[in-house]
Design a protein that fits this description.
The protein has five helices and two strands. With about 120 residues, it is mainly alpha-helical. The protein has a domain of about 60 residues. The chain is elongated.
């Protein structure tokens, strides 16, 4: 069989069936499955914003919330107990015009370095 294909290629008798199939497939509409939008994350963020509003009052555009990491962990617990665990909450608040700054007691290792 492989020698037969080489013979056909050498003498130009080979039909490129794969190319024809690809052209036919390209003309068809592609079927792309889209995963349903996960509203659970959106609901969770709304609940977290509600918790912050209970604690700090109405959150209005232009507000800046300075919260210690230990405090926000008590209000809105996370498995990963780091400031970056609240990035989705901070980005949603930022979209609403509210700045969330979470401070940590952990000191930086290289405090003497200067940024140029």
């Amino acid at each position: 069989m492989p020698f037969e294909n080489l013979y056909r290629i050498a003498f130009g008798e080979r039909k490129n069936s794969n190319l024809a199939e690809r052209k036919e497939d390209a003309g068809k509409e592609s079927h792309i499955e889209v995963a349903p939008y996960d509203t659970a994350k959106e609901d969770a963020t709304e609940t977290e914003i509600g918790i912050l509003e209970e604690r700090y009052g109405d959150l209005k555009e232009g507000m800046v919330l300075w919260i210690d990491l230990q405090t926000i962990l008590k209000l809105i617990p996370r498995k990963r107990q780091r400031t970056d665990a609240y990035n989705s909450l901070a980005s949603e608040l930022k979209r609403r015009g509210i700045t969330l700054i979470i401070t940590s007691r952990k000191k930086k290792r290289h405090e003497s370095q200067t940024i140029l």
